[in-house]
Amino acid sequence: QVQLVESGGGLVQAGGSLRLSCAASGRTFSSYVMGWFRQAPGKEREFVGTISWSGGRTDYADSVKGRFTISRDNAKNTVYLQMNSLKPEDTAVYYCAAGLIWEIAIIRTRRSYNYWGQGTQVTVSS
Description:
Blueprint: E1 4-7, E2 10-13, E3 18-24, E4 33-39, E5 46-51, E6 58-60, E7 68-73, E8 78-83, E9 92-99, E10 115-116, E11 120-125
Parallel strand pairs: 2-11
Antiparallel strand pairs: 1-3, 3-8, 4-5, 4-9, 5-6, 7-8, 9-10, 9-11
């Protein structure tokens, strides 16, 4: 098992930047594909991006492509989400998640991930 704790959320003006972190417990962090999802009030949780075990592959939702970057440091058991050019529509609770496989058909879906953090709030003001 792995436990995930997100941090770095907060209030930022439109056009600003934030970097979220997700710290994982355990010694097998490099065995997990790590994803980021978000959920806005009244909406379904949606895929933001994901990164493979070594960081060699990434995938992003079209809505964040070019603005958000996922990276990971396996030595620190941490995955990051750098968010630039933030928009009010990026306001949501952001969750990190860990999964064991990279299957292109489902990598953007919740069922690809076995473990979830508690989330961190990101609010972007206009």
